[in-house]
Design a protein that fits this description.
Chain A is α+β, with helices and mostly antiparallel strands. Chain A is built from 5 helices and 20 strands. Chain A has 2 domains: about 5-170, no CATH class; about 175-295, Beta Barrel (Cyclophilin), CATH 2.40.100. In chain B, the strands form 4 sheets. A 5-stranded mixed sheet of chain B has the order 7-6-13-5-14. Classes of the chains: A alpha+beta (about 325), B alpha+beta (about 240). The interface of A and B includes residues 23, 185, 291 and 297 of A.
């Protein structure tokens, strides 16, 4: 079976798909790619199903050696990919040959890149998903982050001719200041008018203590009415939790399923990708929108992906 | 609306989730209603609903807004809850968890005896004579938040948490008792350990119990512990009551 071997793993590279669903009631986080949008585009570029497993790389990319002809695509943060030492494109289907080395560097902008391989990885699903659950050592590659020498089996060898010549405009346009839209609730009533005002008007900074569980923000404290302890309830993706410290934590893919701190708002689905790509130091401003608007923005994003899927599936592109 | 639904509030969790708050305080009746709704959704399904997470006083429901609008979903939920009658939450399921309370399996037993002024036998007797209601699962996969522990065996958490608590450890943390389904840091006082696998990724149901079920701890000897552990510990016995 064709394979790729990890020469250098980067600080945190894991196998992720769209997530592990159906187990949240028993306490399993969904896991999955932090930036689902970029993950899906990577898959589409190599002709995979949108939610197939990819490698998510954090801050710095992997170097991998291939032992068979294969077609790959890299999306998300710009990690300046090179093929055998020569710069190569992001957001494009790239053919690699046996012996080729694909190496990625530090993210020039953004936080997470996604590497998809045509045909996908030959990795068994664990509880219905290929996503790595680091806490439970479950799924992905032996339940852990990738390390040097790991051999990832590929389902098949796919030359680029079978995928088509795919190349789209890079989407990695990561700003130093981002506006993140939220819907207030579930526990916005735990905060004073002043507190909500602080949340929606001040500028926060992404902390370097952020991880796949939560993106932590530094900045002005949000005033509560009578404390932030609640009787533990469910934590949705993108929930903006305000612990006793008063500064927000945005709950992401590896979050706990339940928790006992008040959540002032929830980041809308369409903006989760921007939070996932915000590196430490990025300035964040929150903007409240209505749920209806959040749904239509989610729909827009969904349409964009479906359009891309259609174009990549039914048209032959020329370089 | 009926009395079943008058306390219900729907709390917004963005565009794809909503929390149904049943009441502002936890009690067994609220939990039965949550369990009733969870069972209805699990058995009959609601088109567009992908997950439902029951917690102490509420349930968070994940849905696809392209398939069902939140408004429609709320209507459906209210309809289900208003059909709840006392006793309609189904059978009581009690999961029997064998626990060895001896020796190295119970590193904090002596401290708990000292803190409570009870003998080891009394602690074991009290701890293992209650069916504990699982209010919710969270913190770790399969970690049960249990209600109904006897006040006499309450013991404060450790001043500094252990960096690793072994899988299967049974502990007391303040007013609560519980099992660690996987090795994890934690501050509870450990009074025993179970040889059964509460979390088993290779079992058809990696976690066998749900919120609304009960757990009963059954004392076993160190020899029995070894015997069960040698079988792999995948099988967990359950007692059903009407």
């Amino acid at each position: 079976m064709p394979k790729m071997t990890i020469i250098s793993p980067g600080p945190l590279s894991t196998i992720q798909d769209a997530g592990r669903f159906g187990y949240m009631d028993t306490g399993f986080s969904p896991n999955g790619a932090m930036d689902l949008y970029s993950m899906k585009i990577a898959n589409l570029l190599v002709g995979n199903a949108m939610c197939d497993g990819v490698i998510e790389m954090t801050m710095m990319g992997v170097s991998v050696k291939f032992d068979a002809t294969s077609t790959v695509a890299i999306t998300g943060a710009d990690m300046q990919p090179e093929l055998n030492g020569e710069p190569t494109k992001m957001y494009a289907a790239i053919e690699v040959k046996a012996g080729d080395v694909l190496s990625l560097k530090m993210a020039k902008s953004g936080m997470r890149s996604y590497l998809a391989v045509a045909g996908g990885f030959d990795i068994p699903l664990a509880m219905g998903s290929m996503s790595t659950n680091l806490k439970c050592a479950l799924g992905g590659f032996e339940g852990r982050k990738l390390k040097k020498g790991d051999e990832i089996l590929l389902r098949q060898s796919v030359p680029k001719a079978h995928v088509g010549s795919r190349d789209i405009k890079p989407e990695n346009n990561f700003e130093n200041t981002i506006v993140v839209r939220v819907v207030l609730g579930p526990q916005d009533d735990y905060f004073t008018e002043n507190g909500i005002n602080t949340f929606l008007t001040s500028e926060y900074t992404v902390s370097d203590k952020s991880d796949r569980m939560g993106v932590r923000l530094d900045g002005e404290q949000i005033e509560n009415k009578n404390g932030v302890d609640i009787i533990s309830d469910g934590i949705a993706t993108g929930a903006v939790q305000i612990p006793a410290s008063g500064t927000p934590i945005i709950m992401m893919a590896d979050r706990q399923t339940t928790g006992g701190y008040a959540k002032i708002a929830t980041v809308i689905s369409a903006d989760l990708k921007n939070i996932a790509q915000a590196k430490p130091g990025t300035k964040v401003k929150f903007k409240a929108v209505r749920e209806k608007e959040a749904v239509s923005l989610k729909k827009e994003e969904d349409k964009k992906l479906k359009k891309l899927q259609y174009e990549l599936t039914y048209s032959v592109w020329k370089d | 609306m009926t009395s079943n639904t008058e306390q219900i509030r729907f709390l917004s969790c963005g565009d794809s989730a909503v929390t149904v708050e049943f009441s502002k305080e936890m009690n067994e009746e609220t939990n039965r209603k949550i369990r009733f709704l969870a069972a209805k959704i699990a058995n009959e399904g609601i088109r567009g609903v992908s997950e439902s997470v029951p917690t102490f006083c509420s349930m968070t429901i994940y849905f696809d807004p392209f398939v069902i609008s939140r408004k429609k979903l709320e209507k459906k939920i209210l309809k289900i809850i208003s059909s709840y009658k006392e006793g309609s939450a189904g059978k009581k399921r009690v999961f029997l968890i064998p626990v060895c309370y001896d020796g190295d399996y119970a590193p904090d037993m002596e401290d708990v005896c000292e803190l409570t002024g009870l003998s080891k036998e009394e602690v074991i007797d009290i701890h293992s004579s209650t069916d504990y209601l699982i209010y919710m699962l969270g913190f770790l996969p399969g970690f049960p938040y249990l209600g109904g522990m006897d006040k006499r065996i309450e013991a404060p958490r450790l001043d500094s948490p252990r960096t690793t608590i072994p899988v299967g450890a049974v502990g007391i943390g303040g007013k609560q008792t519980g099992i660690y389904p996987l090795a994890s840091p934690g501050g509870w006082r450990l009074i025993g350990r179970t040889p059964v696998k509460v979390y088993d990724p290779d079992r058809e149901a990696p976690i066998v119990y749900r919120a609304g079920d009960y757990i009963r701890f059954c004392p076993i000897s160190a020899e029995e512990f070894e015997k069960i552990a040698a079988t792999g510990g995948s099988e967990i016995k359950v007692r059903e009551e009407n």
